[in-house]
Structure formats: structure tokens, C-alpha cells
């Protein structure tokens, strides 16, 4: 697939007024293919942040993409990075008004089974406590650091793609990623969780 | 508890162990795709999709209220249109601070937390937290915010069970009060330089605001003609009924919204598709009002208003199906989150108004 085909920018320019535009069939097909390819990974990323809003935010990403397709510049990065960039901006806006949702979900620590039958329960509880410590520490991060950490750690983007998403040099991504990991490694153990399982 | 730094492996494991979030259901996927296609075919989506529920706000007269944990979904006693019409006719505004004074805003929130015990059983509770803000009449001056976690109310499980089986990390609560200060609401640990909001980094007086970050300039820019206001709300909400309702609720919960705007908004919401009275007498611990909501796949998002006074009581988030994942063990109809907000005018940052 030639993503967001060049037809949307070169061959068939988008209508001057987006609000009155009708997509060419080819563009529609391209976006449907884009959706097929990227919707699930976008949802996985967004659902970890804002579980209740992820369905809508995925739709928002593609609605925004299809409406602003003329802005996509393949020389500046991949379509995947473009979509995650839109998702990141929508996420920021969403979180500003609805921070509580993320805070609430950070409490929702699920169990994770260990391969070791013998140590399963102990491992699970330990993992949950650590996951909870991590969640609290992440809530305290600066947004710019959090974006880098989780676009890599959750979305699975590489540093080059994250640079494209955030519009910053790849060197900045790498240094920021290293710094935030160090920061978390130091901060997480200092977060005291109330253990009732003594 | 470990005092040393985590290893790289421990950090990676903790990142991977974060809750995965709900799955992207086939139905939700189809709706998202349909919205995208509609956006490409028309200036505005003609399909109006209901959405999953969102966080909840309750504006209440009482500063501290215990949540009603159930919604009986008893059905309408009056139409949404009639309820909103009465509210629009009766609505009033909030007292605003004079120069040198502060708008005091206090939010009591109950949010769901869930986990699995060491024995593998689901447990969940509503956690009660409070956030107080002192917003100066001159918004560019220093704001003050205090946050604290107060108590909890079990939905599934108990203190005894958590103690016996292990709480899975659920019950950590830092009950100390956190205080932050910053001009124009820019608190020091918030970084917003990553684009996405045209106001970020601008001087306070130059910020235009938006639905998620209301300010007087944005509020005064909204039409007070109900139809024009609805068109703006619907357009800005990209054709999502829940988003539109959430945006409207934010305005209704704002002490800076004028009576004219509130009234227009109630009238505007009459146009919201599939917006129905969901409970005639929704009781949130004595704060009785009419609930109107939109249904998502798993949750329902309600606002609750008193149609006789026009007072906006709040919003809530109701589970529609027996819970799975983070709602494991919760029956349909459970109110899984809400918060209570109240306003006052005080003379100094840090002052609390007399209890009503």
C-alpha cells in the first residue's frame, strides 16, 4: 500500500475547504487500509492511558487524519509516526480535562500470572506492587518525559519514530529516554505502598 | 520495600505489567471506522455515535457526600426535552470574586480502583479524594491547589479480605496533603510544551481557552443562541454524543459560566441525539435530581440536574453490564465513579468557606 497515497497530496489535492470535501475513492480505500493496519496498536496504547476514552480517541485520530491529510509530509516521518503524533496531541488535550480517569485507572492493578507455579502468588503480588509503584511514579513525570517513555515502552515505537511523533531531534529522544528511566529506577522504590498483606 | 534503585529489568517488568486496558471490541472498531469514513464523506458526521462512558463530575451543595452506588435506571418520568426546558428557565449563575478575592473550587471525587488479591480474587473500592483550588480574580496571579486522599468505600471485598489475601497494591494511599502554586493555573510539575494546545506557553491574558480548559474568554466566545451553541458544541465534539455531553457538563460545572450561557446550554442539549432521561429521581446522597444520559457499550454517562432550580448536580458513570476486567465482580447498575464540586468566594488563598 502506498500509504495515504501521494494522491492525497500530489495527484489529487484535497479540496481547499476541508469542510466541503468529498474523499476520492482511492483515498478512502487508503484510509481504510491505514485503519486496518494501525487502529489496534493505537487502541492498545491509548487504552492504557485512558481506558474509557480509547475507543473514541482512536476514531478521533483517524477523523483528524482524514481531515488533515494534506498536512502529512512523508519526508518528515512515517504514517505510523504521524498517527501516533495525532494520538499524542489528542491524548494531551483529553488528559487536561479528564486527568482523574487516568489517575483512577492507575489504581487498577491487574494480576499477572508467573510461569512458576510454586512462586506464582508471591510473584504476582510483587509484580502488582511494583506495577503500582511505577504507575504512581509515571503520574508524577513531566508530560514530555512520559511521552517518550511510553511511546517506546508501550507503543513500541523506536527512537526515530518518537522523534517524528514529538517533532524533536532523535538525540533528544534518546537522552530524555535514558534520563527518565534513571529517574524512575530511583523514584519507584521510594514510593511507599500500604501493604495489608503482612 | 526495596530502598535501592530498581534494575533495568525491574523497570521493564513494571512497564509491561501495567494494566492493558479494555480490548478494542469489534463493535467499537466498526464505529470508529464508520466515523472515519463519515468524516471523509461529509463536512460533518451525520452518524451520531454513542460512546463509552467517561469520568464523572458531580456538583453538589454538600461538600462531602457519600455516593449512591446504584442506578436503578427506572426510566423517564418526563422527557429529556421537558426536563431541560425547565432547567433552562430556572437556571442562575454563581457568585464571582471581586478584585483581590479568590474563587474557591473544591472537588470531592470517588474513583474506582481494582486489583486482584494474592489469592486471585477481584477486589475494588471507590477512593475518595479532594482537590481544592483558589483561583484569583486576576487569573494571571498565583493560584493555589491542595490535594489529598481521604478514605475509601468497598464495592467488592473488604479491609479484612485485603489484609488476609493481600491487596495487590490497591490500598496504597498517600494521605498527605499536596500543595502546588503557580500563576494562571500553571503548576510547576505540569509541562505542556509539546504542542496540541495553542494556549500552551502563552501569557495568561492571551489564552483563548477551550472546552477542556475553560476560561472567561472562551466562555464569553460561546454563542448564547441555543441552536448556534449546539452547532458549536456538536462540531467541536466531532459528532460524539458523550464528548458533547462531557463538554457541556464542564461548562455547567464552571463557576465562570453566566446564567445566560447555562440556560442556552440546557436548551442546546435538547438537540443531543439519543439523550434520554435515565432516572427520574437520581439520588446522590441526598442530592436528588433527574439523570439524563447517553449509553455506551459498557457504561452510561449521565448528567444529573435539578430541573426545578436549574442547578447542575453533576455527572456519574454507571456500569451497564456485569463487570469484567477492572470491573470484575461488579453488577450492572453500579455507579463506578463520581465527584462533587462546590464553589465559594473567599478573601485569601488557603481560606476555606464556612460549611454550608
UniProtKB/TrEMBL annotation, chain A:
PANTHER family listed in its UniProt record: RNA POLYMERASE ECF-TYPE SIGMA FACTO, RNA POLYMERASE SIGMA FACTOR RFAY-RELATED
Family: Belongs to the sigma-70 factor family. ECF subfamily.
A GO BP annotation: DNA-templated transcription initiation
Keywords, ordered alphabetically: Sigma factor, Transcription, Transcription regulation
Keyword Transcription (UniProt): yes
Domain of life of the source: Bacteria
Protein name: RNA polymerase sigma factor
Region (Disordered), start-end ranges: 1-22
Domain RNA polymerase sigma-70 region: 34-100
NCBIfam families: sigma70-ECF
UniProtKB/TrEMBL annotation, chain B:
Keywords: Membrane, Transmembrane, Transmembrane helix
Keyword Membrane in record: yes
Domain of life where this protein originates: Bacteria
Membrane-crossing residue ranges in chain numbering: 49-70
Span list, region Disordered: 160-199
InterPro entries per the UniProt record, alphabetical: CU044_5270-like
UniProt keyword Transmembrane, yes or no: yes
Protein name per UniProt: CU044_5270 family protein
Natural source organism: Umezawaea endophytica
Amino acid at each position: 500500500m502506498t500509504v495515504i497515497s501521494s494522491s492525497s497530496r500530489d495527484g489529487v489535492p484535497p479540496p481547499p475547504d476541508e469542510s466541503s470535501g468529498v474523499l476520492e475513492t482511492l483515498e478512502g480505500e487508503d484510509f481504510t487500509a491505514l485503519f486496518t493496519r494501525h487502529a489496534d496498536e493505537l487502541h492498545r496504547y491509548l487504552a492504557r492511558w485512558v481506558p474509557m476514552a480509547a475507543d473514541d480517541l482512536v476514531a478521533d485520530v483517524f477523523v483528524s487524519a482524514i481531515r488533515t491529510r494534506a498536512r502529512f509530509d512523508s519526508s518528515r516521518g512515517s504514517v505510523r509516526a504521524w498517527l501516533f503524533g495525532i494520538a499524542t496531541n489528542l491524548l494531551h488535550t483529553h488528559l487536561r480535562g479528564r486527568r482523574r480517569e487516568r489517575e483512577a485507572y492507575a489504581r487498577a492493578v491487574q494480576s499477572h500470572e508467573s510461569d512458576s507455579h510454586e512462586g506464582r502468588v508471591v510473584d504476582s503480588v510483587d509484580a502488582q506492587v511494583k506495577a503500582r509503584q511505577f504507575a504512581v511514579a509515571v503520574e508524577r513525570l513531566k508530560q514530555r518525559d512520559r511521552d517518550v517513555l511510553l511511546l517506546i515502552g508501550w507503543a513500541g515505537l523506536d527512537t526515530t519514530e518518537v522523534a517524528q511523533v514529538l517533532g524533536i531531534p532523535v538525540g533528544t529522544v534518546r537522552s530524555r529516554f535514558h534520563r527518565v528511566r534513571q529517574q524512575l529506577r530511583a523514584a519507584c522504590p521510594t514510593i511507599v505502598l500500604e501493604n495489608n498483606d503482612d | 520495600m526495596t530502598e535501592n534503585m530498581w534494575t533495568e529489568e525491574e523497570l521493564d517488568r513494571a512497564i509491561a505489567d501495567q494494566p492493558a486496558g479494555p480490548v478494542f471490541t469489534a463493535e467499537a472498531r466498526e464505529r470508529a471506522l464508520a466515523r472515519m469514513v463519515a468524516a471523509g464523506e461529509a463536512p460533518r458526521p451525520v452518524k451520531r455515535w454513542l460512546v463509552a462512558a467517561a469520568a464523572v463530575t458531580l456538583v453538589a451543595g454538600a461538600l462531602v457526600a457519600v455516593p449512591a452506588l446504584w442506578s436503578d435506571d427506572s426510566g423517564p418520568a418526563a422527557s429529556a426535552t421537558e426536563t431541560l426546558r425547565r432547567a433552562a428557565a430556572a437556571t442562575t449563575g454563581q457568585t464571582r470574586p471581586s478584585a483581590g478575592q479568590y474563587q474557591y473550587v473544591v472537588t470531592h471525587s470517588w474513583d474506582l480502583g481494582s486489583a486482584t488479591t494474592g489469592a486471585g480474587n477481584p477486589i475494588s473500592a471507590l477512593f475518595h479524594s479532594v482537590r481544592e483550588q483558589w483561583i484569583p480574580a486576576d487569573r494571571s496571579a498565583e493560584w493555589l491547589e491542595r490535594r489529598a486522599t481521604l478514605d475509601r468505600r468497598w464495592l467488592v471485598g473488604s479491609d479484612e479480605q485485603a489484609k488476609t489475601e493481600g491487596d495487590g497494591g490497591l490500598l496504597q494511599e498517600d494521605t498527605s496533603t499536596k500543595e502546588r502554586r503557580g500563576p494562571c493555573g500553571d503548576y510547576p510539575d505540569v509541562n505542556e510544551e509539546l504542542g496540541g494546545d495553542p494556549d500552551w506557553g502563552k501569557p495568561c491574558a492571551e489564552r483563548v481557552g477551550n472546552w477542556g480548559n475553560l476560561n472567561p474568554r472562551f466562555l464569553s466566545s460561546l454563542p448564547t443562541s441555543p441552536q448556534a451553541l449546539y452547532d458549536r458544541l456538536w462540531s467541536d465534539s466531532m459528532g460524539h454524543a458523550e464528548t458533547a455531553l462531557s463538554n457541556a457538563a464542564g461548562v455547567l460545572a464552571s463557576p465562570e459560566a453566566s446564567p445566560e450561557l447555562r440556560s442556552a446550554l440546557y436548551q442546546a442539549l435538547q438537540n443531543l441525539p439519543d439523550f434520554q432521561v435515565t432516572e427520574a429521581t437520581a439520588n446522590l446522597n441526598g442530592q436528588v435530581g433527574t439523570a439524563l444520559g447517553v449509553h455506551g457499550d459498557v457504561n452510561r454517562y449521565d448528567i444529573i440536574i435539578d430541573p426545578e432550580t436549574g442547578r447542575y448536580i453533576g455527572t456519574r458513570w454507571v456500569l451497564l453490564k456485569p463487570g469484567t476486567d477492572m470491573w470484575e465482580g461488579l453488577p450492572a447498575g453500579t455507579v463506578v465513579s463520581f465527584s462533587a464540586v462546590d464553589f465559594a468566594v473567599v478573601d485569601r488563598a488557603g481560606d476555606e468557606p464556612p460549611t454550608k
